[in-house]
Amino acid sequence: MINNSSEQLPLSIVIPCFNQGEFIGEALSSIEQCRDPVYEIIIVNDGSTDPFTINVFNHLKQQGYTILNQSNQGLACARNNGIANAQGQYILALDADNKIRPAYIYKGIEILDHDPEIGVVYGDAEYFGERNDRLTVADFDADRLLLGNYIDACAVFRKGVWEECGGYDETMPLQGYEDWDLWLNAMQKGWKFYHVPDVLFDYRVRSGSMISICKIPENKKKLVNYVCTKHRDLYTRNLAYLIAEKDCLADACWNEAQQLRTQLNQAQAELEQSHQAIATSYEKIRAMESSRFWQFRTLWFQLKRALGLLTTDVLKTR
Fold this sequence. Notes:
Layout: E1 11-17, H1 21-31, E2 39-46, H2 51-62, E3 66-70, H3 75-84, E4 90-93, E5 99-100, H4 102-114, E6 118-129, E7 134-135, H5 142-147, E8 156-158, H6 159-164, H7 178-188, E9 192-205, H8 210-214, H9 217-230, H10 232-237, H11 239-289, H12 292-306, H13 312-317
Parallel strand pairs: 1-2, 1-4, 2-3, 6-9
Antiparallel strand pairs: 4-8, 5-9, 6-7, 6-8
Organism: Myxacorys almedinensis A
Protein name: Glycosyltransferase
InterPro entries: Glyco_trans_2-like, Glycosyltransf_2, Nucleotide-diphossugar_trans
């Protein structure tokens, strides 16, 4: 649905896009499954250079979609630009290669309308593309969020939260952890998070995506160091918990590794036993075939065949 009304809408859906014209049609179709006029769509062209994507933008603009053009400045800047131009009091951040369920729009608005202390609403996801299963995330836990981000950028949040937190950080050494930084800022400022235990969006898994680049150890180390340094006071206050939790996680990983090693050793032992049993059976067969009885039996069948006394049924039973 495209809404160009001057009246404030409950929700603005902001879609940054850089050379992803092949996917954005699916994203828009998923949004427009919601027929009620409660949202606007803002697409931010982050300096796309792909001719196909540029043609897609031209086509969408002709259809009445709002397209904001900017030079390539990265995901954080594109989201910030889109939100700054949003009419809605709530924001739903959607990547161009993902999709949402209509329930995300309805539930996000309903929950934020009902409780002014809630700043962020998030839900579970369904993977598609190179992976097909459900991503079930946990209810909000401040300590858990300190250990790592588990709340996807595809969430519904108040525009006021974004303003109070200073928007997405555009100065990170690499793109990809801007949402974690925003959630930490929101948590520090006392905003509540609400988890809806339903699948509310579809997450496309594909090689070469931004998140896969962030998982490269060197990149991840750089990003985590940046976020933790930026939120030094928050991490310092929770240092004892973080050390204890990391230690428990390390012990759990060690115990799991030991269990896997034991299972592997058992499997190898069973495999060796199977190989030995097969080898023993072959030896018995070879010994039997080399025996005088077997040789006499073979000659006897050859003689009967020559005399025409061996029936087809008997031959089949050999």
